[in-house]
Amino acid sequence: EVRLLSLLPGRYDDDIQCRLVHSKLLENTNFEALSYTWGDSNLKLRSVILNGIRFPVTPNLWDALATFRSETVDRVLWIDALCINQSDNDEKSVQIQLMREIYRSTSQVLIWLGEASSDSALAMDFIKEIPRIDLENGREVEWLALERLFRRPWWTRSWV
Fold this sequence. Notes:
Oligomer: single chain
Radius of gyration: 18 Å
Number of strands: 7
Largest sheet: 7 strands, mixed
């Protein structure tokens, strides 16, 4: 059994509201997993409303939730920081063993690399072009944008 997060609809600047629900992985529940980095631990925490109670989250997670949230429908997600009781080491050890099955059971995995930078859209567009371009000719600006994108902390996670 795992907890899933039902991310309630809202606009970007609205309070982020969500509910935790229990689910068995074999129930064919349609959910997505969110992969992200927790971010800088020195930054001031933000908060979401979780089951009616304010709950602290990292700014990086808050940004991902605000960005991925729908304005009209609930979005069901599995997010380690919220779906696993981080203060219960026994629960964490059990849930970490389930992570392969959790990610395998998702309809898709969302990856949050962080807020857009001045050249991240250029890098993402360039990725789509790579199979069709002559790698020998120029494109220094695009290659630099791509390099900066790949230097983001998410790529250093051990399972990535």
